[in-house]
TrEMBL record:
SUPFAM superfamilies: P-loop containing nucleoside triphosphate hydrolases. Keywords: ATP-binding, Nucleotide-binding, Transport. This is Phospholipid/cholesterol/gamma-HCH transport system ATP-binding protein. Residues 1-22 are annotated as: Disordered. Pfam families: ABC_tran (PF00005). Residues 33-270 form the ABC transporter domain. One of its GO terms (molecular function) is ATP binding. Belongs to the ABC transporter superfamily.
Amino acid sequence: MDEERQEMQAQQAEKTEDRVNELPATDEHEVILSVKDLTVAFGSHVVLDKLNLDIYRGEILGFVGASGAGKSVLMRTVLRLLPKQSGKITILGSEYDEVSDEERIVLDTRLGVLFQHGALFSALTVRENIQVPMREYLNLPQEMMDELARLKIDMVGLAPEAADKYPSELSGGMIKRAALARALALDPDLVFLDEPTSGLDPIGAAEFDNLIAKLRDTLGLTVYMVTHDLDSLFSVCDRIAVLGKKKVLVEGTIDDMLACDDEWVTSYFRGKRARSIVREQD
Ligand SMILES: Nc1ncnc2c1ncn2[C@@H]1O[C@H](COP(=O)(O)OP(=O)(O)OP(=O)(O)O)[C@@H](O)[C@H]1O
C-alpha cells in the first residue's frame, strides 16, 4: 500500500509541476477571496464552524467533501444567498459587510456563478439568458448586448445558432456551456461553478474541463469549483480544498491529498477510482 501511495505521489508531483509551470503569469499569491472563521447554522444545526479558506488569483480551486458536508452552504453564504452567524468574507480586498450598497453592487458584478444543472430561465432563449445580468447591472443599448452575447456564446464553444434556442432545445452539455456564458456575461474576476460536469458523459466532462482551463488561461479567471468529479480534480484543478468536520480539513495539491491521513480523504483520493485515473493519465 505504501509503495502504491509513493508511486502515486511521485506521478502526481510531476504532473503538478507541469501544471504550475503552465499557470498564467499572474500574482499567484494575491488572495481574491478570503473566508475567516465563518460559522453558518440553521437553528441549532451548525453546518460550518469557524471555517477558513483563501483563494488565489488565477487558480482553479476544486472544493470537495462528503455529501451534506456543507459545500453548497459555503458557496451560497459567500454569494450572500444565505446569512452567516459570524466570520468575515473578503472579496477582492473588500469586506462585504463593510462596503456601501453601491460598492456591493460593483463587487457582485465581479463574481459569476454557474449553479448546478445550469439554472437557465426556461422561457428565455440562450441570448436572453446571457443578457439577464447585463440588464440587471449595465445600461447598454440592445445591439451592444447582442454583440456581447454573441462573443460569450463563441467563447464557450457554442455554435452561433444556439443564441435563439430555448433551454429545452439544448443537450446537457450545451446547457452547461450556455450557463457558463451567462456566468461570464459581466467579465467576472471570480467564477463559482457548482458541480459543472455532473450529468455529462466522460468526453463531455473532459471537454468542459478543458474549456474551464482555457478560459482561466485566456481571461485570467479565478475558478472556485465544487465537484465530485475525480477526473476534474486530477486534470484541471491547481489546488483542492476538502470540507469535513465543519471546516476545511486539508487544502493543497493532489500530492497533499495523497499524503493526507484523514480517513475520508484517503478513501476518496487513494480509492480504486482515483488509482485508475492516475494510471490513465500516464
Ligand atoms: N436552507 C437550509 N435550511 C436548513 N438546512 C440546510 C439548508 N441548506 C442546507 N442545509 C443543511 O446543511 C447541510 C449541508 O448541506 P449542503 O447542501 O451544503 O451539502 P453539500 O456538501 O453541498 O452536499 P452535496 O454534495 O450532497 O450537494 C445539510 O445537512 C443540509 O441539510
